[in-house]
Each structure stands twice: as C-alpha cells, then as structure tokens.
Design brief:
Layout: E1 4-5, H1 8-12, E2 22-25, H2 43-71, H3 77-105, H4 111-122, H5 131-154, H6 165-180, H7 184-192, H8 196-225, H9 233-247, H10 258-263, E3 274-275, H11 277-288, E4 299-303
Antiparallel strand pairs: 1-3, 2-4
Bound molecules: fe (ii) ion (FE2) (2 copies).
One fe (ii) ion (FE2) binds next to α5.
Length: about 300
C-alpha cells in the first residue's frame, strides 16, 4: 500500500488537531535474543540500523529539548498539547533505544565509542547552535524519521524475516509513532519561524548526519567484529547487498524514498502531503489491539496530554 501525496494546499489548510497518546513500553531486552542480522539478513545494513539506534537517542534528545523550549511560544492550545505528545513519545523512544543499545554493548557492538562520537556531534555541536537553527534541525530530523516510517509501513515484511520479536516490536512501535507525530515539529517550525532558507539548513544537517552513519555504522562494524573480513569475499558481497538495501533506487530505504526526502525542498511542503492515515489505522490495529497486538505484551501505560486553554 503506497502512501499517496496529496495536494499540499488542501492538507495544509486543515491542520491536524488530534492529540496523540504517549505510550510507555518495557521490552526487557536480552542480549541472547538480539539478532545481529535483523535487517534482511545483511550484516552491514543491520549494523547501520544499530548505529542509527545509538544516534537516534541523541537526535531525540535534541528534539525533546528544542520542543520543550519552544512550547512556551506556541499559542494554539491543540498544537501545544501535541508538542507535549511529541516530547513524551520521543522521551520513551530514547529510553527504550538506550535500553536496546545497552544490550547491543554486550553483543559485539562498540556502543561506548559510538555514544562518545554522538556526544561530540550533538552535545558539543548541534546543541550549541542558536535556538532558531535547532528549531530547524528538529523539523529536519522529524522529516527523515517520517520518511523512514513511511518506507517501513510500505515494507513491513522486513520485520518478519527475523525471529527477534523484541527488536521487531521496538522498530515497529517507533515507526508507528514517528508517523503519528510527523507534522508536529514542522507545524511548530512554521508557526515560530517559517523561514525557508533556515529550514533548508536543518534539512542539510539532518541529512548529513544520516549519511555519515553509513560508513561509520555499517561499513566499520563488520571489520571491527572481525578484521579478517576485509579479505573475505563474503564481506564484500554483503557490502554490495547492504548498499542496495539502503540506497537501491527501487527498493532501498533511502534510494526509493528520494522523492519523499527531496519533497521537503518544496516551499509549500507539508508533512501531511504524504497521507499515512490508512497506514496508521492498519498498524494501530496490528500493534495495539488489546488481545492480539504485537506491542500489547510490552505496553505498560498510555497517557493523552490534556488540551489546556492558555
Ligand atoms: Fe523517535
Ligand atoms: Fe519523532
């Protein structure tokens, strides 16, 4: 099911007013259950997503801090409550990915080193940028997570190739919520800034970080795990296959999403131009049904922030 791009003026004139829930989860990850070939049985591409899991927590912390600071300037009560939902959802994502990353550390992944690198990039870099740039980065990061979420909602077969149920649940839950809140950061950005050129700066910074993770996350990890891999044809076969899985123009995560990624460059772009309403209804049922939902065993509570007239 492909999400359809809709006429932007038609959607943008009808802002989303639904306040989305903050769901608390507890996956109780176990190092013995982690599948290092989670993504299509490809080591390099799987390692890319493991590195992404580490960097995502830093990106989410930036989104949380930026949203928290700018929430005070948002005057629309519904949007303000939605910002609270964004902060809450990202806080639980960061917490759960950190729990997963702690387990990765026991699983031949240099988590401490990657956290050190991410600290240099985010805490000593991006988080020291002026507030308007961080606001633009927040919108840029949320654009890329929305693109990824839509890709995975269109290709959920990837989650069922593995027996690792908890990693599957983690990524599917994250996918659902990134799509649920994909327009909030953008609406805040448009309300408080709206500058096109500044929005492009956030886009470039977010895109560069994601691309920088490919050599760092994917290519390096199999070599760190086993340096002799460099001389093995199987490693180079995996490099070729994984590159296709990430950048292949027809089915690659980023390659096939290039139109959606670049749509952000349109001056009148809005995240809801890419309609995921049907996807969300389908995945809420698949994941959250009280009896059969894939996330139901892991969800501990749910909270919907109230709308308060300010
Ligand atoms: Fe997130
Ligand atoms: Fe997000």
């Amino acid at each position: 099911m492909q999400a359809a791009a809709k006429n932007s003026t038609e959607i943008a004139s009808a802002p989303n007013r639904a306040v989305i829930p903050i769901r608390h989860m507890d996956f109780k990850f176990d190092p013995n259950e982690v599948d290092p070939l989670f993504f299509h049985n490809a080591e390099l591409a799987s390692a890319y997503f493991e590195a992404l899991s580490i960097f995502l927590t830093f990106g989410e912390d930036l989104v949380i801090d930026t949203a928290r600071y700018h929430r005070q300037f948002v005057t629309d009560p519904e949007l303000k409550a939605r910002v609270t939902s964004l902060i809450g959802q990202e806080a639980v994502h960061s917490k759960m990915h950190n729990a997963f990353n702690d387990v990765l550390a026991k699983h031949r992944f240099p988590v401490t080193f990657y956290r050190f690198l991410a600290t240099q990039v985010f805490d000593y870099g991006f988080k020291r940028f002026p507030n308007p740039v961080q606001l633009s980065m927040m919108a840029g990061i949320e654009h890329f997570t929305a693109v990824m979420a839509e890709f995975f909602m269109n290709h959920d077969e990837v989650f069922f190739e593995t027996q690792d149920e908890k990693q599957r649940a983690l990524w599917m839950w994250h996918m659902l919520e990134e799509s649920e809140h994909k327009d909030i950061a953008y609406d805040v950005y448009q309300q408080l800034s709206g500058s096109y050129s500044l929005r492009m700066i956030g886009f470039v910074l977010a895109f560069t970080t994601i691309l920088f993770l490919v050599p760092l996350g994917g290519v390096l990890i199999p070599i760190i795990r086993r340096p002799s891999n460099l001389f093995r044809p199987s490693y180079w076969k995996d490099v070729a296959r994984s590159t296709g899985l990430l950048f292949g123009p027809k089915t690659g995560v980023y390659g096939s999403s290039m139109g959606h990624i670049m749509d952000y460059l349109r001056r009148d772009f809005h995240p809801n131009d890419h309609d995921t309403t049907e996807h969300l209804a389908y995945y809420r049922e698949l994941l959250l049904n009280p009896e059969t939902g894939l996330l139901t065993p892991y969800m501990t509570k749910e909270f919907v922030p109230p709308v308060r007239a300010s």
